[in-house]
Amino acid sequence: MEETKVVTGAWELSTFKFNVEGRGLQLMLKHMKDRKLMGIKCHQCGTVYLPGPFYCRKCHIKIDEPAEVSDHGQVMTFTIGYADVRGNPLDEPRIAPIVKLDGCDSWIMGVMQGCAPEDVHVGMRVKVQWAEETTGSLQDMQYFVPE
Amino acid sequence: MDRKVAIAGFRMAAAPDLETTRERLVFELSKGLLDDLGIDRDAVDNFVLCSNDFLDGRTISHVFLGPPAGGYMKDQTKVEMDGLNAFIYASMGIISGQYDVTMVLAMSLTGSQVSPYLYFDYSLDPTYDRQLKLLNELSAAALEARSYLAANGYPEELLDAVAVQNLKNAAANPGQARRIEGVSREKVKGSPYYYEPLRELHCYPPTDGGCAMLLVSERKAEELTDKPVWLLGMGRSTDIYFIGDRDLSTSLSAAQAAQRAYAMAGIKDPAAELGFAEISSPFAHQEPLLAESMGLLEKGKAAAAYEAGDTAVDGGMPLNPSGGPLGGNPLCAAGLIRVAEAARQLRGEAGENQVKKADKALVHGQDGLCAQQSAVVILGT
Q: Helices (DSSP H) in chain B: which residue ranges?
Protein backbone atom coordinates (compact mmCIF):
# COMPACT_ATOMS: atom_id res chain seq x y z
CA MET A 1 0.00 0.00 0.00
CA GLU A 2 1.24 3.49 -0.82
CA GLU A 3 2.02 5.73 2.11
CA THR A 4 0.09 8.99 2.35
CA LYS A 5 1.82 11.90 4.02
CA VAL A 6 -0.36 14.57 5.57
CA VAL A 7 0.79 18.18 5.34
CA THR A 8 -1.10 20.57 7.58
CA GLY A 9 -1.54 24.25 6.88
CA ALA A 10 -3.11 27.24 8.58
CA TRP A 11 -5.34 29.88 7.02
CA GLU A 12 -5.19 33.31 8.46
CA LEU A 13 -8.85 34.24 8.35
CA SER A 14 -8.18 37.75 9.55
CA THR A 15 -6.98 38.44 6.01
CA PHE A 16 -10.53 39.38 5.07
CA LYS A 17 -12.31 42.58 5.87
CA PHE A 18 -15.96 43.19 5.10
CA ASN A 19 -17.52 46.61 5.25
CA VAL A 20 -21.25 46.53 5.98
CA GLU A 21 -23.92 48.39 4.07
CA GLY A 22 -25.46 50.10 7.08
CA ARG A 23 -28.61 51.98 6.16
CA GLY A 24 -31.11 49.19 5.53
CA LEU A 25 -29.99 47.17 8.54
CA GLN A 26 -29.87 50.20 10.84
CA LEU A 27 -33.36 51.25 9.75
CA MET A 28 -34.62 47.77 10.58
CA LEU A 29 -32.87 47.59 13.97
CA LYS A 30 -33.94 51.09 15.00
CA HIS A 31 -37.64 50.26 14.57
CA MET A 32 -37.38 46.81 16.10
CA LYS A 33 -37.07 48.48 19.47
CA ASP A 34 -40.69 49.63 18.90
CA ARG A 35 -41.66 46.16 17.63
CA LYS A 36 -41.96 47.39 14.07
CA LEU A 37 -40.40 45.94 10.95
CA MET A 38 -39.13 48.56 8.51
CA GLY A 39 -37.95 47.61 5.06
CA ILE A 40 -37.11 49.61 1.94
CA LYS A 41 -39.37 49.88 -1.11
CA CYS A 42 -38.33 50.33 -4.73
CA HIS A 43 -40.05 53.44 -6.04
CA GLN A 44 -39.97 51.99 -9.56
CA CYS A 45 -41.23 48.41 -9.32
CA GLY A 46 -42.76 48.57 -5.82
CA THR A 47 -40.77 45.61 -4.47
CA VAL A 48 -40.38 45.80 -0.67
CA TYR A 49 -37.19 44.27 0.76
CA LEU A 50 -36.41 43.42 4.38
CA PRO A 51 -33.70 44.14 5.40
CA GLY A 52 -33.61 46.93 2.82
CA PRO A 53 -30.71 47.04 0.33
CA PHE A 54 -29.35 50.32 -1.06
CA TYR A 55 -30.41 49.37 -4.58
CA CYS A 56 -33.27 47.44 -6.16
CA ARG A 57 -31.91 44.03 -7.07
CA LYS A 58 -34.40 43.81 -9.94
CA CYS A 59 -34.44 47.38 -11.34
CA HIS A 60 -30.76 48.16 -10.67
CA ILE A 61 -31.49 51.65 -9.29
CA LYS A 62 -30.73 53.28 -5.93
CA ILE A 63 -33.63 53.10 -3.47
CA ASP A 64 -34.23 54.62 -0.02
CA GLU A 65 -37.99 54.75 0.66
CA PRO A 66 -38.80 53.20 4.07
CA ALA A 67 -41.77 50.85 4.06
CA GLU A 68 -43.33 49.25 7.14
CA VAL A 69 -43.91 45.54 6.97
CA SER A 70 -46.37 43.55 9.10
CA ASP A 71 -45.09 41.19 11.80
CA HIS A 72 -47.67 38.65 10.56
CA GLY A 73 -47.17 36.46 7.54
CA GLN A 74 -47.35 32.96 6.09
CA VAL A 75 -45.01 30.02 5.88
CA MET A 76 -43.70 29.66 2.30
CA THR A 77 -41.50 26.64 3.02
CA PHE A 78 -39.91 25.02 6.05
CA THR A 79 -37.56 22.31 7.21
CA ILE A 80 -37.22 20.37 10.45
CA GLY A 81 -33.57 20.27 11.46
CA TYR A 82 -32.02 17.49 13.55
CA ALA A 83 -28.51 18.96 13.48
CA ASP A 84 -27.13 22.49 13.41
CA VAL A 85 -25.53 23.91 10.27
CA ARG A 86 -22.15 22.46 11.29
CA GLY A 87 -23.61 18.99 11.67
CA ASN A 88 -23.77 18.83 15.48
CA PRO A 89 -26.88 17.01 16.71
CA LEU A 90 -29.61 19.16 18.30
CA ASP A 91 -31.31 18.23 21.57
CA GLU A 92 -34.74 18.89 20.05
CA PRO A 93 -35.77 18.98 16.38
CA ARG A 94 -35.79 22.60 15.17
CA ILE A 95 -38.44 24.05 12.86
CA ALA A 96 -36.96 26.59 10.45
CA PRO A 97 -39.52 28.23 8.17
CA ILE A 98 -39.14 30.89 5.50
CA VAL A 99 -41.94 33.41 6.02
CA LYS A 100 -43.43 35.98 3.67
CA LEU A 101 -44.47 38.83 5.94
CA ASP A 102 -47.57 40.75 4.87
CA GLY A 103 -46.52 43.80 2.85
CA CYS A 104 -43.05 42.46 2.13
CA ASP A 105 -41.80 40.86 -1.09
CA SER A 106 -38.58 39.34 0.15
CA TRP A 107 -38.94 36.34 2.46
CA ILE A 108 -37.15 36.01 5.77
CA MET A 109 -35.93 32.94 7.61
CA GLY A 110 -36.32 32.20 11.29
CA VAL A 111 -37.05 29.60 13.93
CA MET A 112 -40.60 28.53 14.79
CA GLN A 113 -41.90 27.59 18.23
CA GLY A 114 -45.26 26.93 19.88
CA CYS A 115 -46.18 24.17 17.49
CA ALA A 116 -45.27 20.51 17.00
CA PRO A 117 -43.10 19.71 13.96
CA GLU A 118 -45.86 17.53 12.49
CA ASP A 119 -48.34 20.43 12.61
CA VAL A 120 -46.32 22.89 10.48
CA HIS A 121 -47.49 23.28 6.89
CA VAL A 122 -46.86 25.52 3.89
CA GLY A 123 -49.37 28.36 3.87
CA MET A 124 -49.69 28.35 7.67
CA ARG A 125 -50.28 31.80 9.19
CA VAL A 126 -47.63 32.88 11.71
CA LYS A 127 -46.57 35.97 13.62
CA VAL A 128 -43.36 37.30 15.14
CA GLN A 129 -42.85 36.63 18.85
CA TRP A 130 -41.08 39.74 20.14
CA ALA A 131 -38.72 39.73 23.11
CA GLU A 132 -40.12 40.89 26.48
CA GLU A 133 -37.67 43.74 26.42
CA THR A 134 -36.60 45.01 23.01
CA THR A 135 -33.18 46.62 22.60
CA GLY A 136 -32.93 47.36 18.88
CA SER A 137 -31.08 44.19 17.96
CA LEU A 138 -31.83 41.17 15.77
CA GLN A 139 -32.58 39.21 18.98
CA ASP A 140 -35.73 41.34 19.46
CA MET A 141 -37.41 39.11 16.88
CA GLN A 142 -37.20 35.87 18.87
CA TYR A 143 -39.08 33.40 16.70
CA PHE A 144 -42.26 32.78 14.77
CA VAL A 145 -45.36 31.33 16.46
CA PRO A 146 -48.72 30.23 14.99
CA GLU A 147 -51.01 33.24 14.46
CA MET B 1 -12.76 37.94 -37.11
CA ASP B 2 -16.14 37.73 -38.81
CA ARG B 3 -17.85 39.79 -36.14
CA LYS B 4 -16.04 42.78 -34.69
CA VAL B 5 -15.95 43.72 -31.01
CA ALA B 6 -15.86 47.32 -29.80
CA ILE B 7 -15.37 48.92 -26.41
CA ALA B 8 -18.34 51.27 -25.99
CA GLY B 9 -17.41 52.66 -22.57
CA PHE B 10 -15.79 52.00 -19.22
CA ARG B 11 -15.61 53.15 -15.61
CA MET B 12 -12.68 52.66 -13.26
CA ALA B 13 -12.01 53.13 -9.55
CA ALA B 14 -8.73 52.71 -7.66
CA ALA B 15 -7.49 53.82 -4.23
CA PRO B 16 -5.48 52.40 -1.32
CA ASP B 17 -8.81 52.02 0.54
CA LEU B 18 -12.10 52.79 -1.18
CA GLU B 19 -13.96 52.48 2.14
CA THR B 20 -16.89 50.81 0.49
CA THR B 21 -18.56 47.43 0.32
CA ARG B 22 -17.90 44.98 -2.48
CA GLU B 23 -21.53 45.32 -3.59
CA ARG B 24 -21.55 49.12 -3.60
CA LEU B 25 -18.34 49.31 -5.63
CA VAL B 26 -19.83 46.94 -8.22
CA PHE B 27 -23.14 48.83 -8.32
CA GLU B 28 -21.49 52.23 -8.73
CA LEU B 29 -19.15 51.06 -11.51
CA SER B 30 -21.90 49.31 -13.43
CA LYS B 31 -24.66 51.86 -12.91
CA GLY B 32 -22.24 54.73 -13.59
CA LEU B 33 -21.17 53.18 -16.88
CA LEU B 34 -24.76 52.53 -18.00
CA ASP B 35 -25.68 56.11 -17.08
CA ASP B 36 -22.69 57.42 -19.07
CA LEU B 37 -24.02 55.57 -22.11
CA GLY B 38 -27.64 56.56 -21.52
CA ILE B 39 -28.89 52.99 -21.24
CA ASP B 40 -30.02 50.65 -18.47
CA ARG B 41 -29.47 47.00 -17.63
CA ASP B 42 -32.19 45.94 -20.10
CA ALA B 43 -29.77 46.80 -22.92
CA VAL B 44 -27.16 44.30 -21.66
CA ASP B 45 -27.39 40.63 -22.77
CA ASN B 46 -24.59 39.12 -20.79
CA PHE B 47 -22.49 39.79 -17.69
CA VAL B 48 -18.95 38.50 -17.26
CA LEU B 49 -17.77 39.08 -13.70
CA CYS B 50 -14.19 38.77 -12.58
CA SER B 51 -13.33 38.25 -8.93
CA ASN B 52 -11.38 35.77 -6.87
CA ASP B 53 -12.92 33.70 -4.10
CA PHE B 54 -9.83 33.79 -1.95
CA LEU B 55 -9.34 37.54 -2.34
CA ASP B 56 -13.06 38.14 -1.81
CA GLY B 57 -13.27 35.91 1.27
CA ARG B 58 -16.34 34.11 -0.05
CA THR B 59 -16.63 31.01 -2.16
CA ILE B 60 -18.36 31.54 -5.53
CA SER B 61 -17.91 35.26 -4.95
CA HIS B 62 -19.74 36.34 -8.09
CA VAL B 63 -23.14 35.24 -6.77
CA PHE B 64 -23.02 38.29 -4.48
CA LEU B 65 -21.79 40.60 -7.22
CA GLY B 66 -24.19 39.70 -10.03
CA PRO B 67 -27.22 41.62 -8.69
CA PRO B 68 -25.39 44.93 -8.01
CA ALA B 69 -23.81 44.61 -11.46
CA GLY B 70 -27.36 44.55 -12.87
CA GLY B 71 -27.31 40.89 -13.78
CA TYR B 72 -30.76 39.91 -12.46
CA MET B 73 -32.10 37.13 -14.74
CA LYS B 74 -29.30 37.66 -17.27
CA ASP B 75 -26.55 35.33 -18.38
CA GLN B 76 -23.78 35.66 -15.79
CA THR B 77 -20.46 33.88 -15.60
CA LYS B 78 -17.24 34.47 -13.72
CA VAL B 79 -13.60 34.44 -14.70
CA GLU B 80 -11.35 33.84 -11.70
CA MET B 81 -8.18 35.17 -13.30
CA ASP B 82 -6.90 38.57 -14.31
CA GLY B 83 -9.50 40.88 -15.87
CA LEU B 84 -7.88 40.72 -19.30
CA ASN B 85 -8.91 37.07 -19.44
CA ALA B 86 -12.47 38.15 -18.62
CA PHE B 87 -12.24 40.71 -21.44
CA ILE B 88 -11.13 38.03 -23.90
CA TYR B 89 -13.81 35.58 -22.76
CA ALA B 90 -16.50 38.28 -23.04
CA SER B 91 -15.27 39.20 -26.52
CA MET B 92 -15.59 35.59 -27.66
CA GLY B 93 -19.29 35.66 -26.82
CA ILE B 94 -19.76 38.62 -29.15
CA ILE B 95 -17.55 37.21 -31.91
CA SER B 96 -19.54 33.96 -31.80
CA GLY B 97 -22.79 35.83 -32.40
CA GLN B 98 -24.30 34.74 -29.09
CA TYR B 99 -24.43 38.30 -27.68
CA ASP B 100 -24.40 41.91 -28.88
CA VAL B 101 -23.83 43.67 -25.55
CA THR B 102 -21.71 42.32 -22.67
CA MET B 103 -20.73 43.98 -19.42
CA VAL B 104 -17.31 42.91 -18.10
CA LEU B 105 -16.78 43.83 -14.47
CA ALA B 106 -13.65 43.03 -12.46
CA MET B 107 -12.91 44.04 -8.88
CA SER B 108 -11.22 43.33 -5.57
CA LEU B 109 -10.70 45.18 -2.31
CA THR B 110 -7.20 43.84 -1.77
CA GLY B 111 -5.70 47.22 -0.87
CA SER B 112 -7.63 47.47 2.38
CA GLN B 113 -7.03 43.86 3.39
CA VAL B 114 -4.76 43.12 6.34
CA SER B 115 -1.98 41.29 4.47
CA PRO B 116 -2.22 42.43 0.86
CA TYR B 117 0.92 40.79 -0.55
CA LEU B 118 0.77 37.66 1.56
CA TYR B 119 -2.32 36.09 0.06
CA PHE B 120 -0.01 34.54 -2.53
CA ASP B 121 1.10 32.01 0.06
CA TYR B 122 -2.22 30.24 -0.49
CA SER B 123 -1.60 29.92 -4.21
CA LEU B 124 1.68 28.08 -3.66
CA ASP B 125 2.02 24.33 -3.89
CA PRO B 126 1.08 23.37 -0.29
CA THR B 127 3.29 20.30 -0.07
CA TYR B 128 6.56 21.83 -1.28
CA ASP B 129 6.85 25.57 -2.01
CA ARG B 130 4.66 26.54 0.94
CA GLN B 131 6.61 24.24 3.25
CA LEU B 132 9.93 25.84 2.25
CA LYS B 133 8.64 29.20 3.53
CA LEU B 134 10.87 31.15 1.15
CA LEU B 135 8.56 32.12 -1.68
CA ASN B 136 5.91 34.76 -1.76
CA GLU B 137 4.83 37.22 -4.41
CA LEU B 138 7.61 39.68 -3.56
CA SER B 139 10.48 37.22 -3.17
CA ALA B 140 9.51 35.47 -6.42
CA ALA B 141 9.48 38.82 -8.22
CA ALA B 142 12.88 39.66 -6.73
CA LEU B 143 14.35 36.39 -8.02
CA GLU B 144 12.93 37.18 -11.45
CA ALA B 145 14.30 40.74 -11.32
CA ARG B 146 17.84 39.57 -10.44
CA SER B 147 17.74 36.94 -13.16
CA TYR B 148 16.66 39.51 -15.76
CA LEU B 149 19.26 42.11 -14.75
CA ALA B 150 22.08 39.54 -14.68
CA ALA B 151 21.18 37.93 -18.01
CA ASN B 152 21.26 41.29 -19.78
CA GLY B 153 24.05 42.96 -17.84
CA TYR B 154 21.68 45.74 -16.74
CA PRO B 155 22.45 47.77 -13.61
CA GLU B 156 19.99 47.90 -10.69
CA GLU B 157 19.47 51.56 -11.67
CA LEU B 158 17.27 50.33 -14.52
CA LEU B 159 14.64 49.53 -11.88
CA ASP B 160 14.81 53.12 -10.61
CA ALA B 161 14.45 54.51 -14.13
CA VAL B 162 11.36 52.34 -14.78
CA ALA B 163 9.82 53.28 -11.43
CA VAL B 164 10.43 57.01 -11.89
CA GLN B 165 8.86 57.01 -15.35
CA ASN B 166 5.81 55.07 -14.18
CA LEU B 167 5.34 57.07 -10.98
CA LYS B 168 5.62 60.36 -12.91
CA ASN B 169 2.98 59.17 -15.35
CA ALA B 170 0.82 57.98 -12.44
CA ALA B 171 1.09 61.35 -10.70
CA ALA B 172 -0.37 63.01 -13.81
CA ASN B 173 -3.25 60.50 -14.04
CA PRO B 174 -6.13 61.41 -11.68
CA GLY B 175 -7.44 57.83 -11.81
CA GLN B 176 -4.37 56.29 -10.20
CA ALA B 177 -4.23 55.17 -6.55
CA ARG B 178 -0.56 56.04 -5.85
CA ARG B 179 0.28 59.59 -6.95
CA ILE B 180 3.58 60.86 -5.59
CA GLU B 181 4.52 64.49 -6.19
CA GLY B 182 8.08 65.24 -7.25
CA VAL B 183 9.21 61.65 -7.67
CA SER B 184 12.93 61.22 -8.39
CA ARG B 185 15.51 58.45 -8.61
CA GLU B 186 16.74 59.48 -5.19
CA LYS B 187 13.26 59.07 -3.76
CA VAL B 188 12.93 55.62 -5.31
CA LYS B 189 16.40 54.63 -4.11
CA GLY B 190 15.50 55.94 -0.67
CA SER B 191 12.54 53.58 -0.33
CA PRO B 192 13.26 50.43 1.69
CA TYR B 193 14.14 47.09 0.18
CA TYR B 194 11.34 44.52 0.30
CA TYR B 195 13.46 41.77 -1.23
CA GLU B 196 16.68 42.80 -3.00
CA PRO B 197 16.84 44.19 -5.63
CA LEU B 198 13.20 45.28 -5.27
CA ARG B 199 12.40 48.32 -3.18
CA GLU B 200 8.99 49.53 -2.06
CA LEU B 201 8.65 51.94 -4.99
CA HIS B 202 9.62 49.20 -7.45
CA CYS B 203 6.51 47.28 -6.34
CA TYR B 204 2.82 47.88 -6.94
CA PRO B 205 0.89 49.49 -4.09
CA PRO B 206 -1.85 47.37 -2.50
CA THR B 207 -4.97 48.76 -4.18
CA ASP B 208 -8.75 48.56 -3.87
CA GLY B 209 -10.48 48.93 -7.17
CA GLY B 210 -12.48 47.78 -10.10
CA CYS B 211 -13.36 48.37 -13.70
CA ALA B 212 -16.61 48.00 -15.62
CA MET B 213 -16.52 47.88 -19.40
CA LEU B 214 -19.21 47.51 -22.03
CA LEU B 215 -18.27 45.39 -25.05
CA VAL B 216 -20.54 45.52 -28.08
CA SER B 217 -20.94 44.16 -31.59
CA GLU B 218 -20.34 46.43 -34.60
CA ARG B 219 -24.07 47.03 -35.02
CA LYS B 220 -24.47 48.16 -31.40
CA ALA B 221 -21.28 50.23 -31.51
CA GLU B 222 -22.92 52.53 -34.05
CA GLU B 223 -25.76 53.20 -31.61
CA LEU B 224 -23.73 53.58 -28.44
CA THR B 225 -20.48 55.40 -29.17
CA ASP B 226 -18.88 57.94 -31.49
CA LYS B 227 -15.43 56.71 -30.49
CA PRO B 228 -15.40 52.93 -30.74
CA VAL B 229 -12.16 51.18 -29.83
CA TRP B 230 -11.88 47.89 -31.69
CA LEU B 231 -10.42 44.56 -30.68
CA LEU B 232 -7.96 43.58 -33.43
CA GLY B 233 -6.22 40.56 -31.99
CA MET B 234 -5.85 38.43 -28.89
CA GLY B 235 -3.63 35.67 -27.58
CA ARG B 236 -2.88 33.78 -24.41
CA SER B 237 -0.24 31.42 -23.12
CA THR B 238 0.44 29.65 -19.84
CA ASP B 239 3.89 28.60 -18.68
CA ILE B 240 4.57 25.89 -16.10
CA TYR B 241 3.77 26.62 -12.42
CA PHE B 242 7.12 25.57 -10.89
CA ILE B 243 9.53 28.48 -11.29
CA GLY B 244 12.45 26.01 -11.19
CA ASP B 245 11.32 24.85 -14.64
CA ARG B 246 11.44 28.34 -16.16
CA ASP B 247 14.03 30.79 -17.45
CA LEU B 248 13.11 33.74 -15.24
CA SER B 249 15.17 36.22 -17.28
CA THR B 250 12.51 36.28 -19.97
CA SER B 251 8.79 35.54 -20.34
CA LEU B 252 7.83 32.75 -22.69
CA SER B 253 4.15 33.22 -21.86
CA ALA B 254 4.19 36.90 -22.85
CA ALA B 255 6.19 36.16 -26.00
CA GLN B 256 3.77 33.48 -27.14
CA ALA B 257 0.61 35.35 -26.19
CA ALA B 258 1.88 38.40 -28.10
CA GLN B 259 2.80 36.35 -31.19
CA ARG B 260 -0.72 34.90 -31.24
CA ALA B 261 -2.26 38.36 -30.92
CA TYR B 262 0.03 39.82 -33.60
CA ALA B 263 -0.85 36.99 -36.00
CA MET B 264 -4.57 37.65 -35.51
CA ALA B 265 -4.16 41.42 -35.88
CA GLY B 266 -1.85 41.09 -38.92
CA ILE B 267 1.02 42.83 -37.16
CA LYS B 268 4.46 42.02 -38.56
CA ASP B 269 6.66 44.61 -36.83
CA PRO B 270 5.12 45.42 -33.44
CA ALA B 271 7.73 48.03 -32.45
CA ALA B 272 6.98 50.01 -35.63
CA GLU B 273 3.24 49.41 -35.95
CA LEU B 274 2.08 49.85 -32.35
CA GLY B 275 1.80 53.33 -30.90
CA PHE B 276 2.14 52.41 -27.22
CA ALA B 277 1.57 49.59 -24.73
CA GLU B 278 -0.17 49.14 -21.39
CA ILE B 279 1.65 46.30 -19.64
CA SER B 280 0.70 44.48 -16.44
CA SER B 281 4.04 44.91 -14.72
CA PRO B 282 3.35 45.08 -10.99
CA PHE B 283 7.12 45.10 -10.39
CA ALA B 284 9.47 47.56 -12.10
CA HIS B 285 11.69 44.99 -13.81
CA GLN B 286 8.70 43.34 -15.45
CA GLU B 287 7.93 46.28 -17.74
CA PRO B 288 11.19 46.03 -19.75
CA LEU B 289 11.29 42.24 -19.35
CA LEU B 290 7.80 41.83 -20.81
CA ALA B 291 8.33 44.57 -23.44
CA GLU B 292 11.45 42.76 -24.70
CA SER B 293 9.68 39.41 -24.64
CA MET B 294 6.82 40.86 -26.71
CA GLY B 295 9.13 42.51 -29.26
CA LEU B 296 8.34 46.08 -28.21
CA LEU B 297 11.91 46.81 -27.14
CA GLU B 298 15.05 45.29 -28.64
CA LYS B 299 16.49 42.54 -26.44
CA GLY B 300 19.43 43.75 -24.40
CA LYS B 301 18.72 47.41 -25.21
CA ALA B 302 16.09 48.20 -22.57
CA ALA B 303 18.38 50.21 -20.28
CA ALA B 304 19.43 52.41 -23.20
CA ALA B 305 15.80 52.84 -24.29
CA TYR B 306 14.77 54.12 -20.83
CA GLU B 307 17.81 56.41 -20.62
CA ALA B 308 16.99 57.88 -24.06
CA GLY B 309 13.36 58.48 -23.10
CA ASP B 310 12.02 56.12 -25.81
CA THR B 311 9.54 54.60 -23.36
CA ALA B 312 8.23 57.91 -21.97
CA VAL B 313 4.87 59.41 -22.99
CA ASP B 314 6.54 61.44 -25.77
CA GLY B 315 8.97 58.66 -26.80
CA GLY B 316 8.91 56.26 -29.73
CA MET B 317 7.38 53.37 -27.74
CA PRO B 318 5.55 54.73 -24.68
CA LEU B 319 5.16 51.99 -22.05
CA ASN B 320 2.39 52.38 -19.48
CA PRO B 321 1.68 56.05 -20.22
CA SER B 322 -1.09 55.72 -17.61
CA GLY B 323 1.49 55.08 -14.91
CA GLY B 324 0.81 51.35 -15.04
CA PRO B 325 0.50 48.99 -12.09
CA LEU B 326 3.10 50.89 -10.04
CA GLY B 327 0.41 53.57 -9.75
CA GLY B 328 -2.31 51.11 -8.77
CA ASN B 329 -2.96 47.42 -9.20
CA PRO B 330 -6.31 46.15 -7.93
CA LEU B 331 -6.03 42.39 -8.36
CA CYS B 332 -8.51 40.90 -10.86
CA ALA B 333 -9.28 44.38 -12.24
CA ALA B 334 -5.60 45.02 -13.12
CA GLY B 335 -5.65 43.84 -16.75
CA LEU B 336 -9.08 45.31 -17.46
CA ILE B 337 -7.89 48.67 -16.16
CA ARG B 338 -4.95 48.42 -18.60
CA VAL B 339 -7.53 47.98 -21.39
CA ALA B 340 -9.51 50.99 -20.18
CA GLU B 341 -6.35 53.11 -19.96
CA ALA B 342 -5.40 52.07 -23.50
CA ALA B 343 -8.93 52.93 -24.68
CA ARG B 344 -8.62 56.38 -23.08
CA GLN B 345 -5.46 56.96 -25.11
CA LEU B 346 -7.02 55.64 -28.33
CA ARG B 347 -10.00 57.96 -27.79
CA GLY B 348 -7.64 60.89 -27.23
CA GLU B 349 -8.84 61.37 -23.66
CA ALA B 350 -5.62 60.80 -21.72
CA GLY B 351 -5.01 64.47 -20.86
CA GLU B 352 -1.45 65.23 -19.77
CA ASN B 353 -0.41 61.67 -20.53
CA GLN B 354 -1.77 61.60 -24.09
CA VAL B 355 0.61 59.85 -26.51
CA LYS B 356 1.07 61.15 -30.06
CA LYS B 357 0.61 57.92 -32.01
CA ALA B 358 -2.65 56.60 -30.62
CA ASP B 359 -4.06 54.35 -33.33
CA LYS B 360 -2.96 50.85 -32.32
CA ALA B 361 -1.92 49.59 -28.91
CA LEU B 362 -0.94 46.45 -27.05
CA VAL B 363 -2.42 45.51 -23.68
CA HIS B 364 -0.89 42.80 -21.50
CA GLY B 365 -2.32 41.03 -18.47
CA GLN B 366 -0.89 38.34 -16.23
CA ASP B 367 -1.62 35.75 -13.56
CA GLY B 368 0.56 33.60 -11.33
CA LEU B 369 4.09 33.90 -9.96
CA CYS B 370 6.40 35.76 -12.36
CA ALA B 371 3.74 36.12 -15.09
CA GLN B 372 3.17 32.37 -15.37
CA GLN B 373 0.17 33.19 -17.55
CA SER B 374 0.03 36.05 -20.02
CA ALA B 375 -2.84 37.50 -22.02
CA VAL B 376 -2.35 40.04 -24.80
CA VAL B 377 -4.84 42.03 -26.86
CA ILE B 378 -4.29 44.49 -29.68
CA LEU B 379 -6.70 47.41 -29.78
CA GLY B 380 -7.18 50.02 -32.48
CA THR B 381 -9.33 52.91 -33.61
A: 22-37, 53-56, 62-69, 83-95, 129-132, 137-152, 157-171, 185-189, 218-224, 252-265, 270-273, 286-293, 302-308, 334-346
